[in-house]
Amino acid sequence: MKTSQPHTPHFRPHLARRVAAEFVGTALLVTVVVGSGIAAQQLSPRDVGLQLLENSIATALGLAVLILMLGPASGAHFNPVVSLVDWLIGRRTKTGLPTRDLAPYLLAQIGGSITGTLLAGIMFDTAPAFSTTVRASGGHLVGEVVATAGLVLLIFALAHTGKGHVTAAAVGVYIGAAYWFTSSTSFANPAVTIARMFTDTFAGIAPASVAPFILAQLLGGALGLGLLFVFYPAATHTARDVVVPHPVKAH
Length: 251
What we know:
The chain has helices at residues 15-43, 48-74, 80-89, 99-123, 138-160, 167-181, 190-195, 207-231. It is mainly alpha-helical.
């Protein structure tokens, strides 16, 4: 089996290392999202638009840095939808996330995201509490479908077209923009959605809104996958390069 970088040894980092990277990366991502939301509330208490600007800039920059930092270790999924799609498209060619690794990735992402919320609360001396911010209107759910579909299409298109080196910047820019062009402010991540339930601050989401959001995100992931195959039918062969190109063990 050939890779896009024939000179690179065919190996995949040990599962424990990859799971640890997914846990830490998702934890830090949520710390950035929730922490910057709390800071924005404190710094700009009377201007919600400015709060969103501060929150979106911090999230875009933080996400790009985390992808660069941990991508070579685990692929920097930090998102159950990305892991699920990577597993699905790589099953036939055995280039994506192996089936045995899927559950550990998902558990690490969910556990890491909740840890990130708790860490942000500790830093800002904000006690954990269920959010009271209801978000699951029809418009919000359509926003999540759009945001997640676009994210999946972007990530896997970049991998297929050999532009993985710009993934960190592109994904950060996309999420930063999607904060503004979607009504839901682009959660686009089931793990992050679950975690944001535990903070009654700017970034929070009410527990009753979590399940509808996750369903919308899964639908968006399926839509993004469908669009990927319309535009790039051979994308299954480059699942190994999601999110950052990483060598894999030959099967």
